[in-house]
Amino acid sequence: MIEAYGKFWRNITDFSGVAKRGEYWWPAIINWILGSLIVTIIQLIMGHPISEIYTWQDVGVSSIRNIVLFIVWIATLSVSIRRLHDTDRSGWWILIQIIPLIGTIWFFILMLLPGKPGRWN
User: Fold this and answer.
1) Where are any strands of DSSP class E within 47-116?
2) Among 19, 48, 49, 79, who pairs with 23 as Cys (CB 3.0-4.6 Å)?
3) pLDDT digit string, tens, across residues 20-46
4) What pLDDT, on a 0 to 100 scale, did the predictor assign at position 121?
């Protein structure tokens, strides 16, 4: 789990390799939990939702949030493309998510599929 999360961040710009199922799912779960906790704590400290801006301090918090979200998005994009490569598909399959509902479900299924045999020798 910790190794997969470390690999998630170390390979943030690797769009050509492969990623095992655990290397995709552990970071997804950890990021969801950490993101929820951090946003909840920040909202409790601020006293209002993080998306609402009332002061210059809120602008700073919102800007930092957006930068962090962009970095996590890039890392998630790269691990998703590597995961697609492991299932012997092109990284362009990530665009299947553009199709409402069915595309999201299909992408979820693709992330669950096992990798091709012999890929990890």
Assistant:
1) none
2) 19
3) 999 999 999 999 999 999 999 999 998
4) 38
Report domain extents, the chain: 2-112
Residue for token digits 């990798």?
115
- Let me know: does 6 contact 79? Beta carbons within 8 Å: no
Distance CA 27, CA 16 (A): 18
Q: Annotate 31-65 with DSSP letters as a single string.
A: HHHHHHHHHHHHHHHHTS-TT---SHHHHHHHHHH
Pairs from 25-33 (Cβ < 8 Å, separation ≥ 24) = 25/111, 26/1, 27/75, 27/76, 27/79, 28/76, 30/1, 30/5, 31/72, 31/76
Q: CB-based burial of residue 109 (10 Å sphere; 0-12 exposed, 13-18 middle, 19+ buried)?
A: exposed
Give the span between the Cα atoms of 67 and 65, in whole angstroms. 6
Distances (CA, A) of 93 to 21, 59, 108: 16, 36, 12
